[in-house]
## 1
Amino acid sequence: MDKKELFDQFVAFTAAVHQVTHELTQDVKIDNITPVQYKILEHIKVSQPVTPTEISDCQHMSLPNTSRELRKLQERKLVEKMIDTEDRRKHYVCLTADGEKMMKEAFACIEERFQQLIQHASKKDLEDIQDALNILNKKVFQPKL
Amino acid sequence: MDKKELFDQFVAFTAAVHQVTHELTQDVKIDNITPVQYKILEHIKVSQPVTPTEISDCQHMSLPNTSRELRKLQERKLVEKMIDTEDRRKHYVCLTADGEKMMKEAFACIEERFQQLIQHASKKDLEDIQDALNILNKKVFQPKL
DNA sequence: TCCATTACTTATCATTTGATAACGAAATAA
DNA sequence: TTATTTCGTTATCAAATGATAAGTAATGGA
């Protein structure tokens, strides 16, 4: 087994993943949301409640810039902040009802495209895919330990 | 087999792929290259010779903007253009020796990090990973058809 | 020949994103 | 109490990216 070969395969694979991700998410109709703002909303959606610092770390952006984007999202009533009662420096960010609705629609659109992508897969194919996802998650993409 | 469940798994997986890709490529020492320029160089590296129109399509950017970035890369002697002798409207873009060197170093750096990522994988693990990559490529991420 | 199309360029402008300094309020440690 | 640290904000500036209009040159077809 050639590790170099595996690397080449890995590079091609990640390129394909990025390509497909782009196709699935492009032009998802969410009015006037910038890519960065969408990423933030997506992150809040799956991890809420979440603090600005956590968003900053996970999205690899500075806290001031995170704060700015959160303010814009808040002004548009897509997210809301709450102050931790224990430690009043901490803010918890959640989606508002509007924000939930928008993200739900976005995910529905993406899921529809995804289902189209695998529409021709047999029952066995689907199981194989699931197994493959599990293996790669466990052996390669697993976030630290 | 629940297709909805598979979608959720897929979303989590692609998020993990993007995360790992970011970790592998962040701070790859290539002096003053912007992310977009790096993507272009990467694309040229694996597909050269390539035309501006092809880059424009694959990188999802307009031809004028592609042209601008290529000019900057050309000014820095990282890429060079040749005119098609058959159809003199077409330009073929390639990496210069400097460009090749820079990309080779970048890939070496990324590969080193990748090998670290799978350093604890057994021989069987590596085979499993390879199989999983093949399955996903074929069943899901395969570019059209 | 004239016209339409293709491939690419230049120029310009708006928006998004990144980086940094300076500040405030709350918690914590001395 | 007085530091010091943490979490978050505002403000400002620079750079990267996106969008669009206009232009050139080559091709190919009528």
## 2
Amino acid sequence: MKTLLVEDDPLLGQGIADALTYQSHLVEWVKTGLHALSFAHASQFDVIILDLGLPDMDGLDVLQQLRNDNVLTPVLILTARSTSGEKVTGLDRGADDYMVKPFDVPELMARLRALQRRESQQKSPIITHGNLEIDPANLSLSKNGEPISLSRHEYDLLLHMINRPTQVFSREALVDKLYNWDNDVSSNTVEVYVHHLRKKLGKHIIKTIRGIGYQLGSTSE
Amino acid sequence: MKTLLVEDDPLLGQGIADALTYQSHLVEWVKTGLHALSFAHASQFDVIILDLGLPDMDGLDVLQQLRNDNVLTPVLILTARSTSGEKVTGLDRGADDYMVKPFDVPELMARLRALQRRESQQKSPIITHGNLEIDPANLSLSKNGEPISLSRHEYDLLLHMINRPTQVFSREALVDKLYNWDNDVSSNTVEVYVHHLRKKLGKHIIKTIRGIGYQLGSTSE
DNA sequence: TTGCTTTCTTAAGGCTTTCTTAAAAAGTTA
DNA sequence: TAACTTTTTAAGAAAGCCTTAAGAAAGCAA
């Protein structure tokens, strides 16, 4: 899960970034509204965590700008502004959730999972596909009830594709999901991970759309 | 907006129902888990507001049951259970938002709007032509529901013609669409691709306008 | 820290599909 | 029929993808 964290406080920001990373998020952490805007446009995030008190502009304006520019990424506002009116304003400007500082980390994680689940049209908290089961809360995977261990990138790739089971992903889009922008991966990582997943989960788990990219396939042989 | 309110407390229930109605929701108010289940199955709601302390069963079980039964309606839990652990449990069982009583009515309304907004973002348009379906977002094509795979140039050619179904294209115009300017293709590529498309999609998919070029035809034989 | 294990990244060679070309066959027009 | 256009076929070239393997990096345990 690729997350844009917008938070100017260095300590708090580091804390959240660490917590997210620990939950195997891929985190891009920026400290100003302008950076937030440019990152949100440059790459496709699964969720944006937005502080409102930023040094250069108000977080609400960042949000509004994003929505104006048709960036539909779910946004969770995380702020010290705690009045009812402020919450209503935030939500009505286009946020999907609103949490007040000080906040509880597990609750933040659970709310992010809920946003993600809704976004990917998942019905239940446990994601299934054929005989596969994924529990995003535990980062675990099983096939026919047997647990299978995946490396972090294998897991990310699979989860991302399972969240949009009919979509075709270009290699570039997948690289964008798997890596931070300052990490230039110049070679065939995606092919290699696809190969690993096929080895572990069966040949047909991922289909190749030649000249275009990859698409989730079936779990049967 | 059609809302299912599940709340056994008469006073509080009435208050919420009134507030919702005032915001021009169409409210169905039930007081037990069993009623909640049967209503949620019988009709398509835009959102469900769920109390957890119900007389006949726990709200969490209602929620789990709904998700098991493939009811995707967004659920907002509204309860007195306020610990972090309880929130995490609620969200991870499949809720989309979680509010603690006593709560603020405007905030509830704003959260409902946020859920609704997210829900109503629709998916990509699909182009149809006769019995063909093209999903440009996924670069996929099917005929009578059967997926058909095209090579990149075949796909480009077809999509270009389908976007202008009545226009007649000269060979030169099509070459120009398929290739960069610095790519001098000196031979009969277009003819070859037309031939491929006819083979895959039926003779009449492309008509020959003799001496001029090609035009989209019909998908029937 | 050190050493051990797992995971990541890169590159190269082989394999498969698609592209391009050319030439023969078929069709159309005058 | 002659002249011309379009279709079909086939084969070598090019591009795209898969697989393997090895060194680098990261994570973990003592």
